[in-house]
Amino acid sequence: MIEEARIKSNLDTIAFPRLSGTEFELEAFNIVKQEIENLNLEFEVQNFAFSSFYSRIYPKIAFLSASLILLILYLNIYMNLFLVFIVILLGLLITSIILTRKPENIQFIKQLNSQNLLVKIKPTSNEIKNNGRIIMFISHLDSKGQRFKINTRIRIIKLWISSSIILAFFIILNNAILTGFELILFIIGMFPLIANMLVAFLLLLNTTDNSSVGAVDNASGIACNLELAHYYSLPENRLKNYNLWFLFTGAEECGTMGIKHFYNNMKNLNPDKSIMFNFESIAKHVYLFPGGKESDNAKDIDSLLLNNNRNLTIRHYITNRVFGTHSDGGFLGDKGLCGFGIGEVEAYDYMHTPQDTLDKIDTKILEKLCLVLTDALKEHDSKYF
Fold first, then answer.
1. CA atoms lying within 13 Å on the CB side of residue 356
2. How far apart are CA 111 and CA 48, in angstroms?
3. pLDDT in tens, 62-101
4. What do you get for the CA distance between the two ends of the chain, in Å?
5. pLDDT at 120
6. Which has the closest alpha carbon to 317: 302, 331, 301?
7. b/e per residue, 102-140, with b = 16+ CB within 10 A?
């Protein structure tokens, strides 16, 4: 059975600061591994090393370099020294972009260690072998604190993007189209220029630390994942036509390094037959991300979740991912794997801050969510007979 008391107990145990690549993340991993061992489930450990460059240094280089280039072009400073400076900045920016196309392969700056835990439960039907159908539940083990909370960072990045576009427009007008109006354009363009430079400075100030206990992000996801693993550990609860995988990723908060390592080494996972459920952050509300964009083989699950019999309100949340934000579900979606991100928008107000605490979570909501998922998957699974 799904039990709220066990969910609450696991939340209490796992909600402590656990920054990527630290002994605290390893402690969280060991706690989860012990729980899986107690259930006598088959699992594998995926150890990997990663660099903090992609998540913590590259954004500062990219945003600041681009802003300085726009500043020089806007001021029309074409002395040799400044031209050389532009070339250096462009070289730095392009090199960083090339390096971060495969961020999991970066082996410089600070090297850290992390690990994933992958649990596998086979279907109960003896007649179906190697069918390739997999349902995977994902949650990340680590947490982080940052100087600016998620909502603030999203607004900052959106302001940088919009001000950069406006600045580029003014630079083109000033140099190629509306000659003779330089002074007027210069004065008007000062507003987006100031905004752009201010944002670049704020992004430099944003730092990562171990100040958040990460109760919502993502102890809530771990608790749901563990509860479902407990439920499906009993043979009578298992699905007949799907393998069940439970993935606990490391270093999600440092550029989604764990899921990248998993993807680069995954075997026997057919995107056309697999359905992902990524528990991101759940406190008092439940949303599906991105709403209504699931694969054809999961359309019925979407309907079953939204029209559940557990008195749980679940809504679609339709939005485009903001440049510079990362999630395990978003990464897999970009790779063509389909499924459901499960999270909460309201939690953005305090995620990645010391205010991300246990009192924010309604464990009854987590219990209902697990029940709704088991109901939906049971009905979905029965359609193959």
1. 33
2. 10
3. 999 999 989 888 887 766 667 788 888 888 888 888 888 8
4. 24
5. 95
6. 302
7. ebbebeeeeebebbbbbbbbebebeeeeeeebbbbbbbb
